């Protein structure tokens, strides 16, 4: 499984970011520019995934890792963000609501 750190995420440009946390978690604060596709809804929303490579984030990195594994098996070019949104916030990076 491909992974990146939040430091690497902060440097990336032009790569879509999918946040797989539940809606209430996303609305409480997320990485700016992220698109919310909750893990619990993802199976019915696969057509909303980007056609190109994209990154996947959750709160700590566990849910997003499972999603990346499943999507990679389906042929998607997905990368997990290690440490998730919690690591992003812990570094004092900006958060959107």
TrEMBL record:
Rhodanese domain mapped to chain residues: 11-97
SMART domains in the cross-refs: RHOD
InterPro entries, sorted: GlpE_sulfurtransferase (IPR050229), Rhodanese-like_dom (IPR001763), Rhodanese-like_dom_sf (IPR036873), Thiosulphate_STrfase_CS (IPR001307)
Pfam families: Rhodanese
Protein name according to UniProt: Rhodanese-like domain-containing protein
Organism: Microbacterium commune
């Amino acid at each position: 499984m491909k992974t990146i750190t939040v430091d690497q995420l902060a440097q990336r440009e032009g790569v879509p970011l999918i946040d797989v946390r539940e809606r209430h978690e996303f609305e409480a604060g997320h990485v700016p520019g992220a698109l919310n596709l909750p893990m619990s809804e993802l199976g019915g929303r696969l057509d909303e995934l980007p056609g190109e490579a994209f990154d996947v984030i959750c709160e700590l990195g566990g849910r997003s890792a499972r999603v990346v594994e499943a999507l990679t098996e389906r042929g998607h070019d997905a990368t997990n963000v290690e440490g998730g949104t919690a690591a992003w916030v812990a570094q004092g990076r900006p958060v959107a609501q």
